[in-house]
Amino acid sequence: MKTINIKALYTFEGYVVDEIECTETYAQVKLSFDQRIPPKCPRCHGVIPKNKIGGSCVMDSPLAHINTVLILFPTVQGRCPNCLHYVTSRPKEFHLTKKATWRYMRQVSSWASLAPANQVANMFNISASSVRSYDQAVLENDTPPPNLDGIRALLVDEKSVRKQHNYVTVVLNADTGELLHMQEGKKGESLAVFLRSLSEEQKCSIKAVGMDRGGSYKRAVEQNLPNAAIVFDRFHLVMNLNQAVDETRRIEWNKATKNDKKWLSTRCA
Asked: Model-level pTM?
């Protein structure tokens, strides 16, 4: 019978597996330096001198029924002669600042797209804030940059996030629904930053911009896309119409006599 070496699951450039310890509740993988490969800068992958040797650990993907898997590894701290930063060496498969492997973070992120953060946190025995942090890091790293060429129309709106009415400005490709831009704030400058980043050719292809009736976005479009038509979205137009009707109804009610109010009550019932 062929036996598969479990150490093959923990192959990281510059490191070798010394020991794997498993219990009912956790697994621990101990790494050591591969003496054939010098420690490298995690930023530019240049060789760094062994000024200070230490150690660290990261979380890794679950192993069988064991959710908690720790990888312990030695580190070298030093000043990289190439990028001139003081860095701590680590395998490229580990996140630079978070105590987790990229594959573990991607696994958490994939579940975060299907379930609330607190439920995913229970699955992996981590905090909900860690779930959100891993998900954000994976999306920022893995999501390709948007294609800004040949856009026909844009959709612009603000979205409330977190508490205390914090807003972000969101820009979508009207034809595909692709997210093109998102920035804190709901002022015109939040949109203008994106529009100014477009090339002249990209601006010329945009024929229309859909938005609500707020004046700040309208001014940003007029200044940066003077040839694009501004289209106010139907939802806000209907809302404004209903508000105008309600306001007119209140004014007429306050002006009406007692008999007129009886007539208005029967007509509006």
From this structure: 0.69
The residue type found at 75 is T
**Mean pLDDT in order along the chain per 10 residues (269 residues):** 72 91 90 90 82 90 89 90 85 92 96 94 93 95 91 89 77 92 85 93 94 82 93 74 81 78 65
Measured CA to CA, the distance from residue 9 to residue 30 in angstroms comes to 13
Do residue 12 and residue 85 come from a single domain?
yes
Residues contacting 45, CB < 8 A, separation 6+: 92
For 238, which DSSP code? H
Q: Are residues 135 and 157 in the same domain?
A: no
Domain that holds residue 161: 153-232
Residue 148 lies inside a defined structural domain of this protein: no
**40 within domain boundaries:** yes
